[in-house]
Amino acid sequence: MSDRGSYSSTSASTSPSTNNKEKSKDYHRMDCKKIQILPTTGSLDYYTDGRMAVRFHESTQEMSLWLNDLKDEIFIPFDQLKGFRIAEYKELEVSLVLNFHRKYYQNDVEVKGDPTNGLLEKATSLIITPRNNVPIESLTTIEDIIDKYRFGIFLATYKISSIRRDPVNSIEIYVKFFMYVERGGVVVPEDISLDGIIQTISKKFKFYLNSDRLSYKNGVDVIIAIRDEEDWSVAKWESRYSNTKPGVELYFI
After folding, report:
1. Residues annotated as region Disordered (predicted)?
2. Virtual torsion, Cα 4, 8, 11, 13, nearest 10 deg
3. Is the pTM of this model over 0.70?
């Protein structure tokens, strides 16, 4: 076991908060063998740091890192997630806002000490590798939870926007992307250009994307090619009136 566990225990005993974490029952758990932290080279590993898992809590709209033999937990609100990626070879990447908000708990009691000993400082992305016995369906369940959350944001955003008549460029949209073995989603300004969305996905997840094979799925599930900025504007416009999708669905296939 690493020193991070003992650090957390010391912090919990010397500076606990009076806030107890209310346990949510509607969470999805995925056991992990490694969590890599970007852009640093820091990582948490099952073999040196003990049992670990990630949990996605629907009712409280949070994800959590369950660390140090499941004794410590770090809660991160969903609104601190700027994107995600899953791969069929079983890998989950979560993109975070800079200086993202988080809270630390030990045995459901909030503490001030960081159980990672500062590894999450300046982190912008977490690459999570599940245990070998975790099925790919576990990752797609996480995708569904994130999509459900984003759809709620989508509905609330456009309801408020229609009442206040906010300018379009004040709104963020959710863009899902699909490739042969990987897919995910990003949150971007609605006025983002076609080149802008391609560059955003490429840089955030280090992809090489072929825009010559770019298309989107409209409200009646028809795949339509995107060849230029006008097509991209239509795709965004159609997504505003969808009753089933949280945003634009892009296909690089």
Report:
1. 1-27
2. -140
3. yes
